Amino acid sequence: MLSSYRESLVRNRRAYYAKEIGDLRYKLAHAQAEIAFMPNVSKYVLETSVVLGALLLSAAQFLLQDAGHAVGTLAIFLAAGTRIAPAILRVQQGMLAIRSSAGASKVTLDLAESLQHIEVPKLAKEDSLETEHRGFNATITLSDATFTYPGKAEPAVRDVSLEITNGAFVAFVGPSGAGKTTIVDILLGILPPAKGSVTISGLPPMEAITTWPGAVAYVPQDVAIASGTFRENIALGFPPAFATDESIWETLRVAHLDDFVRELEKGIDTEVGERGARVSGGQRQRLGIARALFTKPKLLVLDEATSALDAETEANVAAAIQSLRGSTTVVMIAHRLATVRSADLVVYLDQGRALAMGTFEEVRAQVPDFDHQANLLGL
């Protein structure tokens, strides 16, 4: 909720958000108070019960028999109570701890169960990392791929088949929720298809990625920025020996971020700030593009990677990406149709199905909605 402060301020809904946050804080405080209060209450209730029980039995013995029996009963009861009470309290505290942790434990156990079928890839040795990617062929083959998210009745991607040749520029377009990001996740091996198959360079995606580290690069719409310098963020996950000044500046130049970084006091060794606090949304995306281009990938996947750029910067970055054609396979998801007009293959997705494939003009002729959008943009 705090992350939407600007929206709540502009919509004049601060009171509503304050009430929602207050209610959540009250529930949290109530739960924490109950967890802290119950063990102490139980202790005093149990101790009181032991003492009262001992007194009642002793009184009964005193009235029915004599003082000697009463004193003996009281001593035995108190001795037994002092030994048993701590054990009962420990059991009760354990039950309270289990009860308070049950919700989080269920989520963790469900996640662990869902991860059991995932095969963890073997990590490559650092000394095998290179930027030439010898033997890698950036050809992608997708055959009757189908994927359904857990808990959903309808597949997010249904029976999609296509072949992306080495060096091609391919664009996935379509309305929101059409399955564009899902199909990219399938291509990258992040989501295993429930039916069908996918290969990169003739191998399953994760096997290809681990065989040729850095040959495949991905730029999301929301780029994650790690705490550290520009140099460390661009060479993220790779040995420091790769992060030479020349290689870092080259990727920054291609991503049109070099002018900004040169103005900083420490240049590429300037701290980016926690979660990228010192960069704007557009600079964050260009940093993500620079990170992807750092290993000179043969397969570059862009998921709305230029959505936060201004028109001039987007055109410059698009021109840089276009220059990779022939040597690098580019797979792009884009809502801005102007960026995919020159694609070798445009795939129009709707409700998880590939309704049309071909050049930009061929897809326009096949899909009226796509043609309408292009006309609105003057394309």
From TrEMBL:
Residues 140-376 form the ABC transporter domain. Keywords: ATP-binding, Cell membrane, Membrane, Nucleotide-binding, Transmembrane, Transmembrane helix, Transport. Signal peptide: none annotated. InterPro entries: AAA+_ATPase, ABC1_TM_sf, ABC_transporter-like_ATP-bd, ABC_transporter-like_CS, P-loop_NTPase, Type_1_exporter. One of its GO terms (molecular function) is ATPase-coupled lipid transmembrane transporter activity. The keyword Protease does not apply. One of its GO terms (cellular component) is plasma membrane. It is a multi-pass membrane protein. It is found in: Cell membrane. This is Unannotated protein.
